[in-house]
Amino acid sequence: MKNSVFVSILFIVGILFMLGGSEDEGGGCQCNVSTAQISEAKICTSLTAKLCDQDNPELESSTKTIYVSCRLKYAVEDTNVKFTWLYYGKTKIEIDNVFFNTGKNMGNLELHSSLSQPTNGWPKGAYEVVIQVQTDNAKPLIKQFNIK
């Protein structure tokens, strides 16, 4: 009985070794996972320090600058975060992408991104900002707002 268990374990380890290979050969897990999470996203027209005081998901078309702020929790060094600004007119239009890298900063951090009013003013309608830690296991936080 002990022999068959040992042979089974040896067989499984052998298969995993053959499937994995070395990282130099392109095998093995090259996953990019993190404990970092985005929370407390808010839309506003001005910041206090680095955050929006209150969430304002309805903005006037005369708004000069739109901010989104959030908290990045459990960040490790060199955590990458992407803010994607979108407008939903007749079709979904990507307005801008902003990338942040935390560098040597770790733990809980405050982040924000902004858009300035276009020359012809803000088109009325639905917008959203997708905020995502750039890892394989991160789920995006989507913050929607409207310009009236």
Q: Can you offer a commentary on this structure?
A:
This protein has 148 residues and is mainly beta. Helices cover 13% and strands 45% of the residues. It is built from one helix and eight strands. A five-stranded mixed sheet has the order 2-8-7-4-5, with no helix packed on it. Strands 1-3-6 form a three-stranded antiparallel sheet, with no helix packed on it. It is globular, with a radius of gyration of 22 Å. 17% of the residues are buried.
Kindly report the name of the CATH homologous superfamily of the largest domain: Immunoglobulins
From the 3D structure, determine the CATH topology of the largest domain. Answer: Immunoglobulin-like
Strands of the largest sheet, in order across it? 2-8-7-4-5
Shape: globular
Instruction: Catalogue the unreliable spans.
Output: 5-25
- Total of helices: 1
Number of domains: 2
Main β sheet profile:
5 strands, mixed
CATH class of the largest domain: Mainly Beta
The level of helicity is 10-25%
Radius of gyration: 22 Å
Query: H/E element string?
Result: HEEEEEEEE
Mean pLDDT: 84
Global structural class:
mainly beta
The CATH architecture category of the largest domain equals Sandwich
Q: How would you summarize this macromolecular structure in one to three sentences?
A:
The chain has one helix at residues 2-20, and strands spanning 37-44, 58-59, 65-75, 80-88, 92-101, 107-116, 125-133, 141-147. It has 148 residues and is mostly beta strands.
Supply database-style keywords.
Immunoglobulin-like, 148 residues, single chain, mainly beta, 2 domains, 8 strands, 45% strand, 5-stranded mixed β-sheet, 1 helix
